[in-house]
Amino acid sequence: MDHPLSLKLASLSLVSQHKLECILSTCGNKIDFIIDPMLIKPLERICGVTWLRQHGVDKIYKMDPQLGATANTKRAYLIPACLHKYKCVLDQIASVLSLNPSLSETKCFHIIIVPKTMSTYDSILESKGLYDIVQLHSFSWELFNLDDQLLSLELPFLYKQVFVEQNQSLLSSIAMSLWSLFHVTGRPKCILSLGKVSSSVLDVLEVYKESYQRDFINVDKSQDFGSLIIMDRDQDYASSLLTPATYTGLLNEIFSINCGQLDLNVKETKIKKGKVNFTTEEKSDKKTVITLDSFTDTLYGEIKHRHFSEVLSVLSSKAKLLKNEDIKALGIQEMKDYVTTKLQQVTLFKHNLVNHVLACETIIAEMNNKFENLTQTECEMLNNRNKKGNYTYVDEHFGTDIHVYNSLRLMCLLSLTQGLSYDEYNSLVSKYLLAFGYKFLYVFNNLISAGLLVQPSSPKLSLNISHLSNLSERLPKWQTAFQNTANKLKQLPQTESENSPGYVFNGSYIPLVAAMCNTLLTSESLLEVLNKLSPLNDLKVGGAIIDKQKIGMETLNEKLSNLSLNNFELSCKDAKTILKTLKSDSKMNGGINIKPRTVLVYIIGGVTYAEIAACDVIQTITNSKIFIASDCVSSGSDVMAANL
User: Cis before residue 115, ω within 30 degrees of 0?
Assistant: First the structure.
């Protein structure tokens, strides 16, 4: 029996639940379950308190470095794969053992690490004298179905480890999530990979396929995704750095969102927390949470991808409809039917309406009439216009309205799109350090390491080189590398269009992932796809579509027989190599038939709500379906925070 894709995706939570059940079964009964606050919301999507109690958990605690004695001797910690949190747990266990040394023989301490343990963890365990006393477990949960066509692993710390710290230890967890997904949905026929990290993930995925000696389900009979686009976050930083114009995009800029749950705290927004001279507000006793799910909140489903300028008018019209609903004129029987069938729905709708109106009011108050000037400046940066004015705007922002995240964000956008001179760079760095302290000096090294910031060279060091350079090299550049690539991919719309996905950034920019989806879904041949995407350097192609073209794909055994670090590319081939082959032999250039017309987009390093909204436009135009998956849903301020 062929089940709908929505049911298949929902079943992934049962797989996660089974994994957790296997881990808890090894921990015994009467367990004190201590959970890191970051993992509480994701865990609620896997199981409830009742389920935990049925599987050996007695008491549940929130992880705290100052946590004292608990009810039972057996402890199971659930923490993310972050080294400092792991060390904190070990210090806590060592403290307990110092008070009661006899516990070291009972093996009553367990640490469940999401998504996996690493080799360094065992070394640290041994160095602290806790080896064979503390048991380590890996818990790699599956993708969460947060919303309609939105999947997330909810691992917000992965971006920092992979792109900032250059630590790729957790990439196997990304590959495992795809491996599990493809066993449910079938493997796509066409795979496009953009970025070195994405290519590595597909290599690991192929190794899993061979190691476990278990192929994916029959793609001819059950294939839910026709193609897969997997992309590194650093391939399109502009989509993270630009200010979004959609409702959900601005929600994520202002409020904290964890696993699809928005904390509607108007007194402690992201913008207020990042101000240099913010005053301490009284914390609200009443906590309001909005669930960003179109299935449970139909009003959210209607406004989530709309331009923010349209949202208040939609909410106003909904409020008028409720006001005009006259229940006084109903008869007794009609009143009974209303109470039993509609009253609960209307009450929930009113509650959601009030929350969305409050969220809109907070967004307007926080943006403080700066939205128009900000988006206009960003548009000028994208098109390499008015460099002097753009730098002046950023410089004034650093001087009068500096923000711990958003100021860095503007600096990075200017650096990537128009570049910064040596003096401009040092001036902005100095102002930031004067505002927040020289303890943040490391942040700029992190931004450079992640590819968010380009550090200009000293004019003294480049003086001799500049004398030897040609005159053409010293002329002003009308287009930087960013504009050159973006123009070739038609990411910078020159005219406003109602159906353009560029509306997510006020018509100034089309996210790269939306441009790739549009190219894939509107092209008639693989040659056409690769021609249009030729400006992308790290593009690779894989899947059954390559096998059909018969472009000398090596088998896995052939790869392993010639194994080396340089040629270990099991699943995809370089797009430029394939393009040359297709151009030289017209017989190999068959049509590209993506069936079903359903694309899975997987962005490693976090996806933004603006990119999700842009893909929604593409799927409407092309009469297709685009599912978005990532390790988390992030915003520009989240990307900056990962570098701090």
Answer: yes
